[in-house]
Protein backbone atom coordinates (compact mmCIF):
# COMPACT_ATOMS: atom_id res chain seq x y z
CA UNK A 1 0.00 0.00 0.00
CA UNK A 2 2.83 2.34 0.74
CA UNK A 3 5.78 2.37 -1.65
CA UNK A 4 8.89 1.79 0.44
CA UNK A 5 12.49 1.98 -0.79
CA UNK A 6 14.86 0.89 1.97
CA UNK A 7 18.53 0.96 1.08
CA UNK A 8 21.33 -0.39 3.21
CA UNK A 9 23.36 2.81 3.58
CA UNK A 10 26.89 1.91 2.54
CA UNK A 11 28.13 5.10 0.86
CA UNK A 12 31.09 3.57 -0.95
CA UNK A 13 32.76 4.96 -4.07
CA UNK A 14 34.40 2.30 -6.26
CA UNK A 15 38.03 2.87 -7.20
CA UNK A 16 38.61 3.59 -10.87
CA UNK A 17 40.48 0.71 -12.47
CA UNK A 18 43.81 1.39 -14.18
CA UNK A 19 44.79 -0.54 -17.32
CA UNK A 20 48.33 -0.03 -18.56
CA UNK A 21 48.68 -2.82 -21.14
CA UNK A 22 46.70 -3.62 -24.24
CA UNK A 23 45.58 -7.15 -25.01
CA UNK A 24 47.51 -8.61 -27.94
CA UNK A 25 45.95 -11.63 -29.65
CA UNK A 26 49.31 -13.33 -30.10
CA UNK A 27 50.35 -12.87 -26.48
CA UNK A 28 48.93 -15.89 -24.67
CA UNK A 29 50.03 -14.48 -21.30
CA UNK A 30 47.25 -11.90 -21.65
CA UNK A 31 44.62 -14.42 -22.69
CA UNK A 32 41.37 -14.16 -20.77
CA UNK A 33 39.24 -17.25 -20.33
CA UNK A 34 35.92 -17.20 -22.17
CA UNK A 35 34.39 -19.48 -19.58
CA UNK A 36 31.33 -18.14 -17.74
CA UNK A 37 32.31 -17.42 -14.15
CA UNK A 38 30.56 -16.24 -11.02
CA UNK A 39 31.97 -12.81 -10.22
CA UNK A 40 30.01 -12.05 -7.09
CA UNK A 41 26.98 -13.03 -5.03
CA UNK A 42 25.51 -10.56 -2.54
CA UNK A 43 22.83 -11.21 0.05
CA UNK A 44 21.45 -8.36 2.16
CA UNK A 45 18.85 -8.75 4.89
CA UNK A 46 17.55 -5.85 6.96
CA UNK A 47 14.97 -4.89 9.55
CA UNK A 48 13.55 -1.35 9.62
CA UNK A 49 11.29 0.24 12.24
CA UNK A 50 9.85 3.75 12.31
CA UNK A 51 7.49 5.76 14.49
CA UNK A 52 6.04 9.25 14.46
CA UNK A 53 2.86 11.30 14.89
CA UNK A 54 2.20 12.84 11.47
CA UNK A 55 0.66 10.12 9.30
CA UNK A 56 -0.41 11.42 5.88
CA UNK A 57 -3.18 8.81 5.68
CA UNK A 58 -4.96 10.53 8.56
CA UNK A 59 -4.32 14.08 7.40
CA UNK A 60 -0.96 14.79 9.06
CA UNK A 61 -1.85 13.46 12.51
CA UNK A 62 -1.75 9.93 13.96
CA UNK A 63 0.70 7.06 14.21
CA UNK A 64 3.41 6.50 11.58
CA UNK A 65 4.50 3.21 13.10
CA UNK A 66 5.84 0.84 10.45
CA UNK A 67 7.95 -2.33 10.39
CA UNK A 68 9.71 -3.67 7.30
CA UNK A 69 11.62 -6.91 6.74
CA UNK A 70 13.70 -6.81 3.57
CA UNK A 71 15.76 -9.47 1.79
CA UNK A 72 17.81 -8.93 -1.36
CA UNK A 73 19.84 -11.40 -3.45
CA UNK A 74 22.15 -10.44 -6.32
CA UNK A 75 24.11 -12.67 -8.70
CA UNK A 76 26.84 -11.39 -11.07
CA UNK A 77 28.35 -13.45 -13.88
CA UNK A 78 31.22 -12.55 -16.22
CA UNK A 79 33.05 -13.84 -19.31
CA UNK A 80 35.30 -12.62 -22.13
CA UNK A 81 34.08 -12.87 -25.72
CA UNK A 82 36.14 -13.58 -28.84
CA UNK A 83 37.27 -9.97 -29.03
CA UNK A 84 38.44 -10.10 -25.41
CA UNK A 85 35.69 -7.76 -24.23
CA UNK A 86 34.48 -8.26 -20.69
CA UNK A 87 30.77 -9.13 -20.52
CA UNK A 88 28.77 -9.09 -17.30
CA UNK A 89 25.26 -10.28 -16.55
CA UNK A 90 23.54 -9.54 -13.26
CA UNK A 91 20.25 -10.68 -11.83
CA UNK A 92 18.72 -9.76 -8.51
CA UNK A 93 15.49 -10.00 -6.58
CA UNK A 94 14.28 -8.20 -3.49
CA UNK A 95 11.32 -9.03 -1.26
CA UNK A 96 9.96 -6.63 1.38
CA UNK A 97 7.24 -7.43 3.88
CA UNK A 98 5.88 -4.58 5.96
CA UNK A 99 3.11 -3.69 8.36
CA UNK A 100 1.85 -0.12 8.69
CA UNK A 101 -0.39 1.33 11.40
CA UNK A 102 -1.24 4.42 9.33
CA UNK A 103 -2.18 2.48 6.19
CA UNK A 104 -4.65 0.51 8.26
CA UNK A 105 -6.57 3.77 8.77
CA UNK A 106 -7.61 3.85 5.12
CA UNK A 107 -10.55 1.80 6.32
CA UNK A 108 -10.49 1.69 10.15
CA UNK A 109 -13.26 -0.91 10.30
CA UNK A 110 -11.23 -3.61 8.58
CA UNK A 111 -7.75 -5.08 8.65
CA UNK A 112 -6.81 -6.47 5.27
CA UNK A 113 -3.77 -7.17 3.14
CA UNK A 114 -4.67 -4.07 1.16
CA UNK A 115 -4.29 -1.75 4.12
CA UNK A 116 -2.45 -3.15 7.11
CA UNK A 117 0.36 -5.17 5.49
CA UNK A 118 1.80 -5.82 2.07
CA UNK A 119 4.61 -7.54 0.19
CA UNK A 120 6.77 -5.81 -2.41
CA UNK A 121 8.71 -7.93 -4.93
CA UNK A 122 11.27 -6.22 -7.17
CA UNK A 123 13.46 -8.29 -9.53
CA UNK A 124 15.83 -6.87 -12.16
CA UNK A 125 18.31 -8.07 -14.79
CA UNK A 126 21.19 -6.29 -16.51
CA UNK A 127 23.94 -6.80 -19.09
CA UNK A 128 27.07 -4.77 -19.78
CA UNK A 129 30.11 -4.99 -22.06
CA UNK A 130 33.46 -3.40 -21.25
CA UNK A 131 36.32 -2.83 -23.68
CA UNK A 132 39.30 -2.71 -21.37
CA UNK A 133 41.62 -1.51 -24.14
CA UNK A 134 39.49 1.49 -25.10
CA UNK A 135 38.26 2.13 -21.58
CA UNK A 136 34.57 2.11 -22.57
CA UNK A 137 31.54 0.31 -21.21
CA UNK A 138 27.84 0.21 -22.08
CA UNK A 139 24.90 -1.82 -20.85
CA UNK A 140 21.14 -2.16 -20.51
CA UNK A 141 18.79 -3.37 -17.81
CA UNK A 142 15.17 -4.17 -16.99
CA UNK A 143 13.37 -3.99 -13.65
CA UNK A 144 9.92 -4.36 -12.16
CA UNK A 145 8.28 -3.82 -8.79
CA UNK A 146 4.94 -5.18 -7.59
CA UNK A 147 2.75 -4.40 -4.60
CA UNK A 148 -0.96 -4.82 -3.98
CA UNK A 149 -1.78 -1.37 -5.35
CA UNK A 150 1.35 -0.56 -7.35
CA UNK A 151 3.04 -1.98 -10.44
CA UNK A 152 6.24 -0.51 -11.91
CA UNK A 153 8.27 -1.44 -15.00
CA UNK A 154 11.67 0.11 -15.70
CA UNK A 155 14.22 0.25 -18.51
CA UNK A 156 17.73 1.64 -18.18
CA UNK A 157 20.90 2.03 -20.20
CA UNK A 158 24.36 3.31 -19.34
CA UNK A 159 27.61 4.32 -21.03
CA UNK A 160 31.02 5.24 -19.59
CA UNK A 161 34.42 6.19 -20.99
CA UNK A 162 37.77 6.56 -19.24
CA UNK A 163 40.43 9.07 -20.22
CA UNK A 164 43.59 7.83 -21.96
CA UNK A 165 45.57 7.87 -18.72
CA UNK A 166 42.66 6.14 -16.90
CA UNK A 167 42.63 8.92 -14.28
CA UNK A 168 39.21 10.25 -15.22
CA UNK A 169 35.88 8.75 -16.28
CA UNK A 170 32.64 10.13 -17.71
CA UNK A 171 29.45 8.13 -17.12
CA UNK A 172 25.85 8.57 -18.22
CA UNK A 173 22.79 6.54 -17.29
CA UNK A 174 19.24 6.93 -18.53
CA UNK A 175 16.22 5.40 -16.78
CA UNK A 176 12.53 5.22 -17.60
CA UNK A 177 9.82 3.95 -15.23
CA UNK A 178 6.22 3.25 -16.17
CA UNK A 179 4.01 2.91 -13.08
CA UNK A 180 0.38 1.94 -12.62
CA UNK A 181 -1.43 2.73 -9.38
CA UNK A 182 -4.67 1.39 -8.01
CA UNK A 183 -6.65 4.35 -6.69
CA UNK A 184 -7.61 3.12 -3.24
CA UNK A 185 -9.30 6.09 -1.55
CA UNK A 186 -10.10 6.52 2.14
CA UNK A 187 -13.27 4.61 2.93
CA UNK A 188 -15.45 7.70 3.51
CA UNK A 189 -14.43 9.21 0.14
CA UNK A 190 -15.24 6.21 -2.04
CA UNK A 191 -18.15 6.90 -4.36
CA UNK A 192 -19.23 3.41 -5.36
CA UNK A 193 -15.65 2.20 -5.61
CA UNK A 194 -15.28 -1.56 -5.29
CA UNK A 195 -13.41 -2.76 -2.20
CA UNK A 196 -12.34 -6.06 -3.71
CA UNK A 197 -8.84 -6.75 -4.98
CA UNK A 198 -8.54 -5.76 -8.63
CA UNK A 199 -11.80 -3.77 -8.49
CA UNK A 200 -10.22 -0.31 -8.11
CA UNK A 201 -9.78 2.25 -10.85
CA UNK A 202 -6.19 2.90 -11.94
CA UNK A 203 -3.97 5.73 -13.11
CA UNK A 204 -0.41 6.02 -14.42
CA UNK A 205 2.83 7.73 -13.45
CA UNK A 206 5.89 7.99 -15.69
CA UNK A 207 9.42 8.95 -14.63
CA UNK A 208 12.38 9.83 -16.86
CA UNK A 209 15.87 10.46 -15.52
CA UNK A 210 19.35 11.17 -16.88
CA UNK A 211 22.28 10.71 -14.48
CA UNK A 212 25.63 12.25 -15.45
CA UNK A 213 28.90 11.95 -13.54
CA UNK A 214 32.59 12.73 -13.85
CA UNK A 215 35.14 10.84 -11.71
CA UNK A 216 38.73 11.98 -11.31
CA UNK A 217 41.73 10.44 -9.57
CA UNK A 218 43.64 13.53 -8.45
CA UNK A 219 46.53 11.62 -6.89
CA UNK A 220 47.16 8.46 -4.89
CA UNK A 221 45.25 9.85 -1.93
CA UNK A 222 42.39 11.88 -3.39
CA UNK A 223 39.50 10.91 -5.68
CA UNK A 224 36.64 13.20 -6.71
CA UNK A 225 33.25 12.71 -8.36
CA UNK A 226 30.74 15.27 -9.67
CA UNK A 227 27.11 14.27 -10.23
CA UNK A 228 24.15 15.82 -12.03
CA UNK A 229 20.66 14.31 -12.31
CA UNK A 230 17.79 15.48 -14.51
CA UNK A 231 14.43 13.94 -13.51
CA UNK A 232 11.00 14.50 -15.01
CA UNK A 233 7.81 12.91 -13.62
CA UNK A 234 4.32 13.10 -15.05
CA UNK A 235 0.92 11.53 -14.40
CA UNK A 236 -0.78 10.84 -11.07
CA UNK A 237 1.81 12.08 -8.53
CA UNK A 238 -0.46 12.18 -5.48
CA UNK A 239 -1.19 9.26 -3.17
CA UNK A 240 -4.92 8.41 -3.33
CA UNK A 241 -5.19 7.22 0.27
CA UNK A 242 -3.71 10.40 1.84
CA UNK A 243 -6.39 12.54 3.49
CA UNK A 244 -6.32 16.33 3.73
CA UNK A 245 -8.50 18.03 6.37
CA UNK A 246 -9.51 21.61 5.57
CA UNK A 247 -10.14 24.55 7.94
CA UNK A 248 -13.92 24.01 7.64
CA UNK A 249 -13.48 20.39 8.89
CA UNK A 250 -14.19 18.91 5.43
CA UNK A 251 -11.90 16.17 4.08
CA UNK A 252 -10.54 15.52 0.61
CA UNK A 253 -7.99 13.25 -1.07
CA UNK A 254 -4.50 14.72 -1.48
CA UNK A 255 -4.15 16.64 -4.77
CA UNK A 256 -0.79 17.55 -6.35
CA UNK A 257 0.27 18.77 -9.82
CA UNK A 258 0.55 16.27 -12.67
CA UNK A 259 4.21 17.01 -13.43
CA UNK A 260 7.40 17.52 -11.42
CA UNK A 261 10.96 18.36 -12.47
CA UNK A 262 13.82 17.52 -10.10
CA UNK A 263 17.42 18.72 -10.26
CA UNK A 264 19.93 17.20 -7.80
CA UNK A 265 23.60 18.25 -8.06
CA UNK A 266 26.19 16.37 -6.01
CA UNK A 267 29.88 16.11 -5.15
CA UNK A 268 31.78 13.19 -3.62
CA UNK A 269 35.34 12.92 -2.34
CA UNK A 270 37.49 10.04 -1.07
CA UNK A 271 40.70 10.75 0.81
CA UNK A 272 43.08 7.94 1.75
CA UNK A 273 44.90 8.76 4.99
CA UNK A 274 47.48 6.00 4.72
CA UNK A 275 46.65 2.30 4.65
CA UNK A 276 44.18 2.22 7.54
CA UNK A 277 41.85 5.23 7.25
CA UNK A 278 39.63 6.41 4.40
CA UNK A 279 37.51 9.55 4.62
CA UNK A 280 34.43 9.75 2.42
CA UNK A 281 32.46 12.96 1.97
CA UNK A 282 29.33 13.81 0.02
CA UNK A 283 27.30 16.98 -0.58
CA UNK A 284 24.10 17.31 -2.63
CA UNK A 285 21.88 20.25 -3.49
CA UNK A 286 18.33 19.47 -4.61
CA UNK A 287 15.71 21.67 -6.26
CA UNK A 288 12.34 20.96 -7.89
CA UNK A 289 9.54 23.01 -9.41
CA UNK A 290 7.19 22.26 -6.50
CA UNK A 291 9.28 24.64 -4.42
CA UNK A 292 11.28 22.09 -2.46
CA UNK A 293 14.99 22.78 -1.87
CA UNK A 294 17.26 20.50 0.12
CA UNK A 295 20.87 20.15 1.28
CA UNK A 296 22.55 16.85 2.20
CA UNK A 297 25.96 16.44 3.84
CA UNK A 298 27.32 12.97 4.52
CA UNK A 299 30.60 11.97 6.17
CA UNK A 300 31.86 8.41 6.59
CA UNK A 301 35.17 7.05 7.83
CA UNK A 302 36.45 3.55 7.12
CA UNK A 303 38.98 2.53 9.76
CA UNK A 304 40.93 -0.70 9.23
CA UNK A 305 41.74 -2.20 12.62
CA UNK A 306 43.74 -5.04 11.05
CA UNK A 307 44.00 -6.54 7.53
CA UNK A 308 40.57 -8.22 7.77
CA UNK A 309 38.56 -6.15 10.27
CA UNK A 310 37.27 -2.60 9.82
CA UNK A 311 34.63 -0.23 11.24
CA UNK A 312 32.82 2.57 9.39
CA UNK A 313 31.07 5.25 11.47
CA UNK A 314 28.91 7.66 9.45
CA UNK A 315 26.77 10.78 9.86
CA UNK A 316 24.32 12.48 7.49
CA UNK A 317 22.80 15.94 7.90
CA UNK A 318 19.74 16.85 5.82
CA UNK A 319 17.59 19.96 5.60
CA UNK A 320 14.70 20.72 3.25
CA UNK A 321 12.10 23.41 2.70
CA UNK A 322 8.42 22.56 2.22
CA UNK A 323 6.75 22.21 -1.15
CA UNK A 324 4.39 25.04 -2.08
CA UNK A 325 1.33 22.84 -1.51
CA UNK A 326 1.95 21.63 2.07
CA UNK A 327 -0.07 22.75 5.08
CA UNK A 328 -0.63 20.96 8.41
CA UNK A 329 -3.89 19.45 9.65
CA UNK A 330 -6.95 21.70 9.05
CA UNK A 331 -4.94 24.63 7.65
CA UNK A 332 -5.85 24.22 3.98
CA UNK A 333 -8.73 26.29 2.61
CA UNK A 334 -11.13 25.90 -0.32
CA UNK A 335 -9.04 28.46 -2.25
CA UNK A 336 -6.07 26.06 -2.49
CA UNK A 337 -5.77 24.47 -5.93
CA UNK A 338 -3.35 21.80 -4.71
CA UNK A 339 -3.06 20.44 -1.19
CA UNK A 340 -1.21 17.89 0.92
CA UNK A 341 -0.54 17.29 4.61
CA UNK A 342 2.21 14.75 4.00
CA UNK A 343 5.09 15.67 6.32
CA UNK A 344 7.60 14.01 3.98
CA UNK A 345 7.32 17.17 1.85
CA UNK A 346 7.18 19.60 4.79
CA UNK A 347 10.05 21.72 6.09
CA UNK A 348 12.36 19.78 8.42
CA UNK A 349 15.93 18.99 9.42
CA UNK A 350 17.03 15.40 9.97
CA UNK A 351 20.07 13.51 11.24
CA UNK A 352 21.15 9.98 10.39
CA UNK A 353 24.09 8.30 12.10
CA UNK A 354 25.46 4.87 12.85
CA UNK A 355 28.29 2.50 12.04
CA UNK A 356 29.19 -0.64 10.16
CA UNK A 357 31.49 -3.53 11.05
CA UNK A 358 33.11 -5.48 8.20
CA UNK A 359 35.03 -8.77 8.47
CA UNK A 360 36.96 -10.06 5.43
CA UNK A 361 39.55 -12.68 6.49
CA UNK A 362 42.10 -13.82 3.85
CA UNK A 363 40.97 -17.46 4.01
CA UNK A 364 37.29 -16.60 3.82
CA UNK A 365 34.70 -16.14 6.57
CA UNK A 366 34.65 -19.21 8.86
CA UNK A 367 37.40 -20.65 6.64
CA UNK A 368 35.02 -21.00 3.69
CA UNK A 369 36.81 -20.22 0.45
CA UNK A 370 35.23 -17.39 -1.61
CA UNK A 371 32.99 -16.39 1.33
CA UNK A 372 34.58 -12.98 0.95
CA UNK A 373 33.10 -10.81 3.70
CA UNK A 374 30.32 -10.18 6.17
CA UNK A 375 29.15 -6.71 7.19
CA UNK A 376 26.69 -5.57 9.84
CA UNK A 377 25.41 -1.98 9.84
CA UNK A 378 23.16 -0.04 12.17
CA UNK A 379 21.66 3.41 11.60
CA UNK A 380 19.41 5.70 13.61
CA UNK A 381 17.37 8.42 11.88
CA UNK A 382 15.62 11.32 13.56
CA UNK A 383 13.94 14.50 12.35
CA UNK A 384 12.58 17.47 14.23
CA UNK A 385 8.85 16.69 13.83
CA UNK A 386 9.07 13.72 16.25
CA UNK A 387 9.76 11.14 13.58
CA UNK A 388 12.48 8.53 14.13
CA UNK A 389 13.56 5.20 12.71
CA UNK A 390 16.17 2.47 13.11
CA UNK A 391 17.60 0.04 10.60
CA UNK A 392 19.94 -2.90 11.07
CA UNK A 393 21.30 -4.86 8.12
CA UNK A 394 23.44 -7.88 7.32
CA UNK A 395 25.47 -8.09 4.10
CA UNK A 396 27.09 -11.37 2.97
CA UNK A 397 29.39 -11.43 -0.05
CA UNK A 398 30.63 -14.40 -2.07
CA UNK A 399 33.41 -13.55 -4.50
List keywords for this structure.
399 residues; mainly beta; Porin; globular; disordered N terminus
| SS element count, helices | 0
Strand content bin: over 45%
CATH classification, class level: Mainly Beta
- The low-confidence parts are 1-29, 111-115
Looking at the structure, the CATH topology is: Porin
Your description of this structure?
It is a single chain. By secondary structure, the protein is an all-beta fold. The protein has a single domain, classed as Porin (Beta Barrel), CATH 2.40.160.40. Helix content is 0%, strand content 56%. It is globular. Mean pLDDT is 89; it is low at 1-29 and 111-115.
List the helices and strands and how they pair.
Blueprint lengths: L36 E15 L14 E15 L5 E15 L16 E15 L4 E11 L3 E13 L5 E15 L19 E16 L4 E14 L7 E3 L5 E3 L5 E14 L4 E12 L4 E14 L2 E12 L27 E12 L11 E13 L3 E12 L1
Antiparallel strand pairs: 1-2, 1-18, 2-3, 3-4, 4-5, 5-6, 6-7, 7-8, 8-9, 9-12, 10-11, 12-13, 13-14, 14-15, 15-16, 16-17, 17-18
Short summary:
With 399 residues, the chain is mostly beta strands. 0% of the residues lie in helices and 56% in strands.
Amino acid sequence: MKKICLTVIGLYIGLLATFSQQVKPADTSNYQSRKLNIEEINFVSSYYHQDGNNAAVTGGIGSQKLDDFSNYLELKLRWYDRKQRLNKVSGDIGIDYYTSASSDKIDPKTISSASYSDVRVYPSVGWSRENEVKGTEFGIGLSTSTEFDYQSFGINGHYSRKTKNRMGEFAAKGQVYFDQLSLIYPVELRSGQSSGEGGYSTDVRNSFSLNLSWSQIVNQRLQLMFLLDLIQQSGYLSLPFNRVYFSDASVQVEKLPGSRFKLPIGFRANYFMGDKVILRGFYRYYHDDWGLEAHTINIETAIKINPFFSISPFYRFYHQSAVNYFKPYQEHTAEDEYYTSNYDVSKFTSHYFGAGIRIAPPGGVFGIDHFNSVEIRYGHYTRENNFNSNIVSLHLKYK
